[in-house]
UniProtKB/TrEMBL annotation:
PANTHER family: PRESTALK A DIFFERENTIATION PROTEIN A (PTHR43162:SF1), PTHR43162
Domain of life: Bacteria
Protein's recorded name: NAD(P)H-binding protein
SUPFAM superfamilies found in the cross-reference section: NAD(P)-binding Rossmann-fold domains (SSF51735)
InterPro entries for this protein: Ergot_Alk_Oxidoreductase (IPR051604), NAD(P)-bd_dom (IPR016040), NAD(P)-bd_dom_sf (IPR036291)
Amino acid sequence: MTILITGARGTIARSLIRQLVAAGHEVRAATRSPAPLAGLAHLPSGVDVTRVDFSAPATFASVLDGVRAVFLYAERDGLGEFLRHARTAGVEHAVLLSAASADASSADPLASMHGKAEEEVAASDLAWTFLRPGGFATNTLQWAGTIRSHGTVRDPFPDARSAPVHEADIASVALHALTGPGHRGAVHLLTGPEVLTRRRQAELIGEVVGRTVAFEIQDLDEHRRDLARWGPPEIAEALVRNAAEAVHAPVPVSPAVEQITGHPARTFATWATDHAADFAG
Ligand SMILES: NC(=O)c1ccc[n+]([C@@H]2O[C@H](COP(=O)([O-])OP(=O)(O)OC[C@H]3O[C@@H](n4cnc5c(N)ncnc54)[C@H](OP(=O)(O)O)[C@@H]3O)[C@@H](O)[C@H]2O)c1
């Protein structure tokens, strides 16, 4: 059985491909941009890499040949058409990377984007599993440049809290959902094992790389300009609103990573150690 991993340049997709190959599964990696394999340099050798673009149905046929399960990002453009082709080609199960906030009726563009992607997958006649992670540990990579150059983090929300989840744990849950029994129709809330403020995450990165990391309160407009790289202004605004709410809102810590994978969810200190090279200047 071939497992198709779409969005193969993504951080979670790459971890998932490595874990599936190590476990002996047959994997096909699909990306919008296989040539010149940008971002795919760290895939295990021998992985079948191919092009799929959800807005170009001509790219679907060869990619779906022999596939029984597929991993998807919540990329909605063309998703419905891709799912129809997948069903016709004999795909049985889709595992969707959604988000803890997923809610198709929400006014928040991120919550609504993930909720609508879930609705589309649920309407597809494929069996499905929804992975709903909270905040990613990788979000702190946006601090890497200033930590390397000045030993500082600039952010308006030092007290915003999350339970940052390691990409390898999300990928590990995805592996179990794609290859094991009991995940069809399941919704898995995924978090790291501990609730940490942004200030504490910065301190932990400093401890791992062996330097003091100062936390500077960034001006909100400057922060909005920094967030522009993630998408249109309404996305930046949603990220600001979510961070402001995360100062006081309760943060659930989910046992799902350990329950599903059999190992405790990786701590943020472990994540920072795994990514120390990104922060060392
Ligand atoms: N950040 C959070 O806290 C958070 C929380 C909950 C849910 N999520 C979900 O998780 C997703 C992010 O997952 P991730 O970290 O694995 O994704 P990522 O590394 O940001 O990659 C996402 C997608 O972007 C494309 N991509 C990757 N590198 C690229 C590059 N250099 N140039 C152009 N396109 C590139 C890839 O698709 P192709 O290979 O097809 O180009 C990939 O599927 C979010 O989009 C959201 O849906 C995030």
